[in-house]
Amino acid sequence: MTQHMMLATILALQALGASSAAVADEKDKLVGTWKLISAVSEDLSTGQKTNIYKGTPVGFITYGTDGRVMTIVVDSVRKKPAASVATAAEAEALFRSMAAYAGTYTVKGNQVTHVPDVSWNETWTGTDQIRDYRFDGEHLLLATAPSPNPYTGNMSVRTLVWEKVK
Are 124 and 110 in contact (CB under 8 A)? Predict the structure, then answer.
């Protein structure tokens, strides 16, 4: 092996190690509890951005060092049932104004994949919920792949912005 080939091999291995370290650093940066500060849907046909919820969303997502994730998001305009037991209409309104699940997560590149073991909506349980993620200062941005908006059916990307709880 020539000196140039040895140097190229060493540099390639160092770059690979640096790349692995960067991925590990990004995953470590996810660990902890994050508070939701905004949730926006962008309609891909028009470019129009709208708030996903009617009021200010309230929510938390927690990434554990053990590879577990838990999240709950609700709309701040949810109405408390009139009695101690919700009517069918009240229960439906409460269900439709939230999202919650817990499961595992993995990180690969700029994507985090959540796999719910349990969810408020059984269609998510056991599925891969893939989110592009990036950090913007102290904020974590999680964005869906282009998919039908669950409220309008229009193709959209939904982006949730989170702030680390200190």
Answer: no
- Considering its fold, how many domains does the chain have in total? 2
pTM: 0.79
**∠ CA 136-97-157 to the nearest 5 degrees?**
40
CA dihedral (78, 82, 84, 85) positive or negative: negative
Task: Identify the CA nearest to 115 among candidates 75, 151, 67, 152.
Answer: 67
Block mean pLDDT (10 aa), the chain, length 166: 46 47 69 96 95 90 98 91 94 90 96 96 94 95 91 91 95
146 DSSP assignment:
S
pLDDT of residue 19: 45
Q: 30 with 107: CB under 8 angstroms?
A: yes
* Angle subtended at Cα 80 by Cα 76 and Cα 148, rounded to the nearest 5 degrees: 50
Q: Which stretch of DSSP H or E encloses residue 10? A: helix 3-30
Residues 17 and 62 occupy one common structural domain: no
3-class SS at 111? strand
Indicate if 40 and 105 belong to the same structural domain. Answer: yes
